[in-house]
Amino acid sequence: MSLNDPMLYAYLLVILAGFLPTDVFRSAAVLFSRKIDEDGELLVFIRAVATALLAGVIARLVLAPTGDLAGVPLWIRLMTIVIGVAAYFLFRRSVLAGIITAEIAIVGGAVLFR
Amino acid sequence: MANPTPSGATPPPDAPEAPPRLWYLRGTIAALTSIQAVVLFSGFVGFGGLVRDIGFPLGAAILSTLIVWALPAQVLIVGGFAAGSPVAVVALAVGLSSARFFPMVASLLPVIRGRSGFWTQLASSHFVAVTAWVESFRLMPGVPVNARMPFFFGMSITFILESCIGTVIGFYLAASLPQALANGLIFLTPISFLLQLIRNSRDLIDRLALVFGLLLSPVFAQYGGQLDLLWIGLIGGGAAYAIGRRRRAKA
Fold first, then answer.
1. For residues A76 and B179, what is the distance between their CA atoms, to the nearest angstrom?
2. Cβ of A68 and B183 within 8 Å?
3. Residues in contact with B197: Cβ distance below 8 Å, sequence separation at least 6, in sequence order
4. Any CB–CB contact under 8 A between A100 and chain B?
5. pTM of full prediction above 0.90
6. Is residue B168 situated within a structural domain?
7. How many independent structural domains does chain A possess?
8. Judged by CB atoms within 8 Å, which residues 56-75 of A form the interface with B?
9. The domain containing residue B218 runs over which residues?
10. Most buried by CB count within 10 Å: which residue of A2, A18, B160, B179?
């Protein structure tokens, strides 16, 4: 399958790599709707793998952005993450406070240093 | 409107049943007035900005909001697109991340199904995502059992439509905002996901998986080839699981 056409590649990703593997689990749950144990060993393992996967993608979006964000120096992107996480813990585990603080940091950094 | 909107209090069990259409409307209103919807909306505005920055087509992004309806999976898709990962690799990654829908749907269905048939239940399962799941458990106690399905459809379809609008707004904002603000918009996705992962980590396994995933990412971006995403998940998640198990066995 040719991945040279970005349009085709994007739509194939959405349908084959997005819709199918997601709704398989939603539909399966309807078929076997007897309650399953959320802390069963297999699910704990799957959750660990999924968490690491998502963390990996997040890190890549920050470390190696492909678009305009690449114009913001790496150290500012990293500092923003540190500041955002610090604010999250400082404001009693508030996701919103962490996001707002990080946004101020990244926009300020972009204004001053890019 | 003749009927007052429910204030969240449990209606008397023998109240005359309102038509399903009214409960659909009430679900819509519940979605429009939910705080969670604001969080959801800003998440998709950020996604729209990210999509624009990566060069992912807007049509495919909107389609993903409609038919995938899981922001983590959608971030994996555009991340895979940016990295040029093979479709099968991204599918496996998305499958692993979407496996959590199995217990989510299985736990929500008994609450909302009422007298609805199999196909209605199957259709409703597509609309289950984190926000609708959380809001359902909060609001359903105030909804009569047989009105829950229409209420759920009204609420969750509104969530999806809001998110589609957010995706489009973010996409165009990324192009029209001053550069520094556009950078902030694009940064919304990684920082909010990171903080939510931190908040949702329940035990040592979760925390280790998060840290390993972050640390392994630059290593495998360099040496992992096309399968790097999977290596990060399997090695990072597998190591976290193994360490967590050993700690538990010793305790």
1. 15
2. yes
3. A51, A54, A55, A58, B210
4. no
5. no
6. yes
7. 3
8. 56-69, 71-72
9. 201-251
10. A18
Is B122 in contact with A72 (Cβ distance < 8 A)? Answer: no
Alpha helices in chain B (DSSP H): 20-32, 35-54, 58-67, 71-83, 87-98, 101-112, 118-126, 130-139, 148-176, 179-200, 204-223, 228-231, 238-250
B130-152: string of b/e by CB count within 10 Å (b at 16+)? Answer: bbbbebbeebbeebbeebbbbbb
- B142 touches A71 (CB < 8 A): no
Q: CB-based contact (8 Å) between B134 and chain A?
A: no
Cα gap B51→B189, rounded to integer Å: 10
pLDDT at position A95 is 87
B47 and B117 share one domain: yes
Cβ of B60 within 8 Å of Cβ of A46? The answer is no
Q: Which tokens hold the place of B90?
A: 């991204």
Total tally of structural domains belonging to chain B: 2
> Which domain covers residue A94, as residue numbers?
67-114
Q: Under an 8 A CB cutoff, do A48 and B92 touch?
A: no
- What pLDDT digit, counting tens, does each position of B6-50 carry? 444 555 554 556 788 899 999 999 999 887 788 889 889 999 999
